[in-house]
Amino acid sequence: MNYPTPNEAALPHIDKKALSNPVIYPTLEMMENIEFLTDLGKDNSLYDEIWTRIKSH
After folding, report:
1. Which one of 11, 15, 35, 54 has the lowest number of neighbouring Cβ atoms within 10 Å?
2. What pLDDT digit, counting tens, does each position of 4-46 carry?
3. What three-state secondary structure class fits 18?
4. Is the distance from CB of 34 to CB of 25 less than 8 angstroms?
5. Counts of helices then strands in the chain (DSSP H, E)
6. CA distances from 47 to 7, 30, 37, 57 (A)
7. Dihedral pair phi/psi, residue 46, rounded to 5°
8. What pLDDT was estimated at residue 1?
9. How far is CA 56 from CA 31, 43, 47, 53, in A?
10. What is the pLDDT of residue 37?
11. Cα 3 to the center of its chain, rounded Å
12. Which pLDDT value is given to residue 10?
């Protein structure tokens, strides 16, 4: 498994190596610097199109 679970009841069943992997479960310090992306909904395709134009020039 390479993704975290918000289900606390599942944590005892997850390999300890995975639980201690900060890529899967970032520390609180790391969480302070993480940027979250907002789902743009129907505008995702517009964003993708514009970003593709920027990258190609």
Report:
1. 35
2. 999 999 999 999 999 999 999 999 999 999 888 889 999 999 9
3. helix
4. no
5. 3, 0
6. 33, 27, 13, 16
7. -65, -45
8. 58
9. 33, 20, 14, 5
10. 83
11. 9
12. 94
Q: Which of 10, 4, 1 is nearest to 30 (CA)?
A: 4
SS3 4: coil
Q: One-letter amino acid identity for 28?
A: L
**What is the C-alpha separation between 49 and 39, in angstroms, rounded?**
15
Which pLDDT score is estimated for 57? 85
| Residue 24 to residue 30: CA distance in whole angstroms | 12
- Tell me how far the alpha carbon of residue 19 is from its chain's centroid: 16
Q: Which DSSP helix (H) or strand (E) runs through 51? A: helix 44-56
The residue with tokens 């005892």 is 12
Check residues 22 and 2 and name the one with the higher pLDDT. 22
**Which tokens hold the place of 37?**
């992306």
